[in-house]
Amino acid sequence: MKIDGKTKIYGILGDPIKQVATPELMNSIFKKNGENKVLIPFHVNQVSLELTIQGLKKIQNFKGAVITMPHKVEILKYLDETSDEVKMIGACNVIKRTPEGIIKGELLDGKGFIQGLKSNNHFVESKRVFLLGCGGAASAIAFALCENKIQKLSIFNRTKSKAMKLIDKLTKAYPNIDISYSDNVSNDLNILINGTSVGMKESDKPLLSLSNLNSNTLVADIIISPEMTCTLKQATQKGCQIHKGIAMLEGQIKLMNEFMN
How do the pLDDT tens digits run along the chain, 261 residues long? Predict the structure, then answer.
């Protein structure tokens, strides 16, 4: 990869950052297309997020960035323009800088997750789904699941009030889908999704007991590293088919590249 004065700079902002796979995937696309671009990881904590965005506005060869945990909600305060989906869900996972220094935000997690499932021959229409979490990525996934006509959605979050706010939004937008809060993983699920950061640490344990899972349940995670999270490991022990976190990223890489350019 050639780096010179004409190179266009992209980034990924997160904390921690060492686990991300976006640089490798995106840079391989740039190289394949013969584009003079590079995407690099930016380790930015929440205290420094505002100053970072202010600085990126001033860098004329900065074109855009992927936004990952834990900044997907907090970053909304510092964006100049956002899409309707960002406004509705309240989270953002990719930004771009215009030539005028305007920072625009978009949310592609939900579309990317669904695309990742489809690429692996998994389909959600008419399915009963259990979603762990209601943060930025999980909320986007929840809306995407409903948009793709699931039958039932159960949501769990450690802070129940946050889950209830998400459920209220979803119920208003999709009144014909059975959407509720639950802290019990039933044995009649078609799909279970871990939409949280639980599993990034070796010492982590699944948010809820998975003892009731039946072997016909597809268990998915959004965590990329480690590849086998505590949730996926337990699902494998139950004989379930699993869907790894890298699929969501692969599903939205093209969408991210198109948005930032």
Answer: 789 999 999 999 999 999 899 999 899 989 999 999 999 999 999 999 999 999 999 999 999 999 999 999 999 999 999 999 999 899 999 999 999 999 999 999 999 999 999 999 999 999 999 999 999 999 999 999 999 999 999 999 999 999 999 999 999 999 999 999 999 999 999 999 999 999 999 999 999 999 999 999 999 999 998 999 999 999 999 999 999 999 999 999 889 988 998
Domain topology for 8-107: Rossmann fold (3.40.50)
Q: Please answer whether residues 175 and 183 qualify as being in contact, where contact means their C-beta atoms are separated by less than 8 angstroms.
A: no
Which residues are designated catalytic?
72
Q: Is the N-terminal amide bond of 41 cis, ω within 30° of 0?
A: no
CATH code for the part of the protein at 110-245: 3.40.50.720
Locate 10 and state its tokens: 């992209």
